[in-house]
Design a protein that fits this description.
Distance between the termini of chain B: 27 Å
Number of strands of chain A: 12
Strand content of chain A: 15-25%
Largest sheet of chain A: 8 strands, mixed
Helix content of chain B: 25-40%
Largest interface: A-B, 43 and 45 residues
Number of helices of chain B: 12
Order of helices and strands of chain A: EEEHEEHEHHHEHEHEEHHHEE
Order of helices and strands of chain B: EEEHEEHEHHHHHEHEHEEHHEEH
CATH architecture of the largest domain in chain B: 3-Layer(aba) Sandwich
Oligomer: heterodimer
Number of helices of chain A: 10
Radius of gyration of chain B: 21 Å
Strand order of the largest sheet of chain A: 6-7-8-3-9-10-12-11
Structural class of chain A: alpha/beta
Helix content of chain A: 25-40%
Number of strands of chain B: 12
Number of domains of chain B: 2
Chain lengths: 322, 328
């Protein structure tokens, strides 16, 4: 099994200082990612779901060290990414890529499509001028853009096409691991399906491993092999997608699944609706972070923090009663 | 005709800019029954928000104008009213909830002040104290815990769901809401909060008998809220039907494609998602004939030449040549 692990995240934590004393001593922290451990297997898509502020984007970025984690280990192919120096990390970045949510903000409006997609090759000084252009054209074809479009600027493209440009740029260095941070959330429904299909096709063709971050549970279900559910910086449940959707163990996962509006008329709900808001990550509740909203909470929940345990094979859950 | 709270006939709204005139809403007609919920669905740029703004006459005067049509509210044409008359209706008998609660609220005014202000604008006789009491009541009605404390807070101190509740509270403040127009009220919210807001709106519809016109792009929200659905595409209405027959039997190829391209929870990920090819056409370069013809898998000669009228088939109104025969 361990051969198959591409990236092993161990006790990853990221705190932000939210308040400082007069002399600059930190007084309180935001626990954006709180002791997260998980393995990502080669060639799989790991979906990460959760509500806004649960730390899913911070997790994605800390894994790539775009945000420096506070503590924890990131074992990538047997090497700890956090132990690498600047030069080694730069070299490693070829293998690690990120696709952002907003294709309007992640493309420089003054660069042509050619220059945008070519940029990674320029940065790493790969190939001659002609070879680079050839690679760009190959990528454009792969993501469904035509050669004539290479001298155009981003504003001439629609949202879906821009996301194709972003994807072409992300895969031109032949990465192994791509973090997709809400890649389809800004797109219209009819275009969203095109981009999801493209991501799946690329994964099959180029043997990519994805970490797919999204708040949309039906999209995550469609694209992922395994899914991690996050709440207030912690992973509360991790399982294969079928196990997670068919037999969710954690009450939060159940409530989340219950809350998705499905395109089916006359659906009966079991009536489990969460009250209140996600608590502030500056002062998270004691014990289980979810106990303030959990309908099944007992005394122990407010006292002891539940560990993420493997309740069934491959199905991890952090709940005292699961 | 008394059961219709709102009737829109042939509404056309145009915007003019440097590059010429763009018709954002092109002669659409629909009506809303009293006490029911109409959802307008469509992708970005299809004119759904402009329709809502047109009804309240909130189209910015320097760039756009309502070029034609009638909007009958309670039998009276809103487009013929003087600014004073429309102001009495706007926010009072017709209220609007916008998508983005952060821009909808004033950041330098406490929440309480804003709700009180909304109450006092519509009810000149009420005293400040009474208005404050009423505000507390409305805020607790929309499910804000400890409303007395929240009244003293500023919008940035509230979470997104709380702010959206305040927006709804302000929309309700006038008391007699015959029509509530909600423009993507839950798009910026998380699913668990979205479920709370939607059930709040449903409760409102049932208890107060308000009619709701809800604009959304989320078919899941439509299935949950709507009695009737209007599907818009590129400034035109494409299909109008009641919600259950729209979902079970979508007639227009666009509606069908839209429904098929949503990943279902029951869908295996081995199957490729259905896609509608291409992109939404640019409003300034509309295809001749049917607007969906450039992306439609069934498009034939006639579709590229003449715009189809509305055909009535199986209780649906559908703008597609496929149903020309069926109607007869």
């Amino acid at each position: 099994m361990s051969d198959n692990v591409l990236l092993s995240v161990k006790h990853l934590t990221k705190n932000y200082v939210s308040k400082k004393s007069f002399f600059g001593k930190p007084l309180s922290y935001v626990h954006a990612v709180d002791d997260v451990s998980l393995d990502i297997f080669r060639g799989e898509t790991l979906g990460v779901v959760g509500e806004s502020g649960c730390g899913k984007s911070t997790l994605g970025r800390s894994i790539l060290r775009l945000i420096e984690p506070t503590s924890g280990e990131l074992i990538y192919n047997g090497k700890d990414l956090r132990g690498l120096n600047k030069e080694e990390m730069r070299e490693m970045r070829k293998k690690l890529q990120l696709i952002f949510q907003d294709p309007y903000a992640s493309l420089n409006p003054r660069m042509t499509v050619l220059d945008l997609i070519k940029a990674p090759l320029d940065v790493f000084n790969i190939g001659t001028h002609d070879e680079r252009i050839e690679r760009v054209l190959e990528m454009m074809k792969l993501v469904g853009l035509t050669e004539e479009q290479m001298n155009r600027y981003p504003h001439e493209f629609s949202g879906g096409q821009r996301q194709r440009i972003v994807i072409a740029r992300a895969i031109i260095l032949s990465p192994e691991f791509v973090v997709c941070d809400e890649p389809v959330s800004a797109l219209d429904v009819s275009v969203r399906a095109q981009v999801l299909n493209l991501l799946k096709e690329l994964q099959a063709k180029r043997n990519l491993t994805y970490m797919f971050i999204s708040h949309d549970l039906s999209v995550v279900k469609y694209i992922s092999d395994r899914i991690a559910v996050m709440y207030l910086g912690r992973v509360v449940e991790l399982a294969t997608k079928d196990a997670l959707y068919d037999t969710p163990l954690h009450p939060y996962t159940k409530a989340l699944l219950e809350a998705i509006p499905l395109p089916e008329v006359g659906r009966k709900r079991s009536g489990m609706q969460l009250e209140g808001d996600v608590p502030s990550p500056i002062n998270p509740p004691s014990g289980c972070y979810f106990h303030t909203r959990c309908p099944y909470a007992k005394d122990i929940c407010s006292k002891e923090k539940p560990e993420l345990k493997e309740g069934r094979p491959g199905h991890w859950c952090a709940c005292h009663f699961a | 005709m008394e059961d219709k709270v709102l009737e829109v006939k042939n509404l056309t709204t145009v915007f003019s800019g440097k590059t010429g005139t763009v018709t954002a809403v092109d002669g659409i007609s629909f009506s809303i029954d009293r006490g029911s919920c109409l959802c307008i669905v469509g992708e970005s740029g299809c004119g759904k928000s402009v329709t809502a703004l047109s009804i309240l006459r909130l189209i910015p005067r320097n760039s756009g104008e309502i070029a034609g049509g009638e909007i009958l509210f309670d039998g009276k044409n809103l487009l013929k009213m003087s600014p004073d008359e429309i102001r009495k209706i706007r926010g009072n008998r017709i209220s609007m909830i916008f998508q983005d609660s952060m821009t909808g609220l004033n950041p330098v005014m406490t929440v309480g002040k804003q709700v009180v202000e909304a109450i006092r604008i519509h009810d000149k006789d009420i005293t400040k104290e009474e208005a404050a009491e009423k505000a507390v009541k409305i805020l607790s009605d929309v499910g804000i815990p400890s409303p007395e404390l929240r009244m003293k807070e500023y919008p940035h101190q509230l979470s997104g769901g709380m702010r959206q509740r305040v927006m709804i509270a302000m929309a309700l403040s006038a008391g007699h809401n015959e029509l509530l127009i909600a423009d993507e009220p839950t798009t910026a919210l998380d699913v668990t909060i979205q479920a709370q807001i939607l059930s709040l709106m449903r409760k409102l519809k049932e208890e107060k008998g308000s009619s709701i016109m809800m604009i959304t792009h989320d078919m899941g929200v439509v299935a949950e809220m709507a009695d009737y659905v209007l599907v818009m595409y590129a400034g035109k209405e494409m299909e109008y039907a009641d919600v259950s027959s729209l979902f079970s039997n979508p007639l227009h190829p666009y509606t069908d494609g839209l429904l098929k391209s949503i990943p279902r929870l029951s869908q295996s990920s081995d199957e490729e998602l259905y896609t509608i090819h291409g992109n939404v056409p640019d409003l300034s370069h509309m295809p001749a004939g049917c607007r969906f013809s450039t992306r439609c898998p069934y498009a034939k000669g006639k579709c590229f030449e003449t715009e189809p009228p509305f055909f009535s088939v199986e209780g649906h109104h559908v703008r597609c040549w496929k149903y020309e025969e069926a109607e007869k």
